[in-house]
Amino acid sequence: MRIGFIGLGNMGAAMAANLLKAGHEVTAYNRSPDKVADLANQGALPAASVADACRGDVVITMLANDAAVEAVTFGDDGILGALPEGSVHISSSTISVALAERLTEAHTGAGQRFVSAPVFGRPEAAAAAKLFVVAAGAAGDMTTVSPIFDAIGQRTFVLGDDPKTASLVKISGNFLIASVIESLGEAMALVGKAGVDKQQYLDLLTSTLFDAPAYRTYGGLLAREEFTPAGFAARLGLKDVKLALSAGEDLQVPLPVASLLRDRFLTLMATGGGELDWSAVGALSAWEAGGASPAQ
User: Fold this and answer.
1) pLDDT (tens digit, 9 = 90+) per residue, 129-150?
2) In this structure, are strands 119-120 and 113-116 parallel, antiparallel, or unpaired?
């Protein structure tokens, strides 16, 4: 397939590389041209603008937030004006439910197609093509783009024909991950201050009650205090918790734990930790118990 790829950050660059490995033609655009050059060395075609990346069958956006997706979609020479009729915009970004609705309506009005397909997995999973894809869109569109999902992930979960459903499920999943990080951090602060080795404690947890990827991955980062380089920055964690709160408000679903997490991420940001891995939010408890700040 002829695929445009917009957004070559930690996740996007690896996803685009795997599309190339699978034999797709990839035209790449990124605000930082050096990242385009790196991908061009692997066989990608460089795009000079967003519009240049929208000449094929599909364009994929993998961007940090709503504002970035809105800018490349609705801006001058953006996706909406450049994508051919019948072509598909896949948003793999974690975006708000409201923006997913707006994108669906706008692309339908332009005779284009829209699929929401955010992913679960950190950069190492993206590099290994082991992401979990959470997708929603019209059934025919799912069939069209399924080879793309096969190239970047180990499994695709199709959640129906309304794209906003995939966005909501991804937001809920990131909220749960943040909840795991916070509770792990509190528990590790408790046993760590009593002299228990944190790695040994984690081995116990993941060998008994909590043998799950989130506990193994984020527990390991907390035990090792390994918050740089960030696989997913804390400022983005705050963004996703706020998306969960917004969705809860719209649906009239109280999310008291999300409210707590918002404040925890704000504390981490206020103390200089915005660019740390979001797992650093779990280290706030140890700091408050007399340890070092995760931002030090």
Assistant:
1) 999 999 999 999 999 999 999 9
2) unpaired
Residue 193's domain comprises 167-289
Q: Looking at the structure, do residues 7 and 90 belong to the same domain, yes or no?
A: yes
> In terms of pTM, does the model score above 0.85?
yes
Q: Are residues 135 and 31 in the same domain?
A: yes
Catalytic residue numbers, as ranges = 170
Count structural domains, the chain. 2
pLDDT band at 107 (very low <50, low <70, confident <90, very high): very high
Task: Out of 161, 194, 229, pick the residue that ends a domain.
Answer: 161
Q: How far apart, in whole angstroms, are the C-alpha atoms of residue 111 and residue 102?
A: 14
3-state secondary structure of 227: coil
Q: What pLDDT shows up at residue 258?
A: 98
Which of 148, 162, 61, 157 lies closest to 104, judged by CA? 162
What residues contact residue 268 under an 8 Å CB cut-off, 6+ apart?
234, 274, 276, 280, 281, 284, 294, 295
Q: Tell me what the pLDDT averaged over the chain comes to.
A: 97
- How many Å apart are CA 38 and CA 252, to the nearest integer? 45
Q: At what angle do helices 213-224 and 198-207 cross, to 10 degrees?
A: 170
- Closest listed residue to residue 56, CA positions, set 7, 112, 94: 112
Same domain? For 154 and 173 the reply is no
Helix (H) or strand (E) holding 140: helix 139-152
- The stretches of 76-138 forming alpha helices (DSSP H) are 79-82, 97-109, 123-127
Stated as kind and residue range, the H or E segment containing 250 is helix 234-251
Tell me, yes or no, whether 41 and 91 share the same domain.
Answer: yes
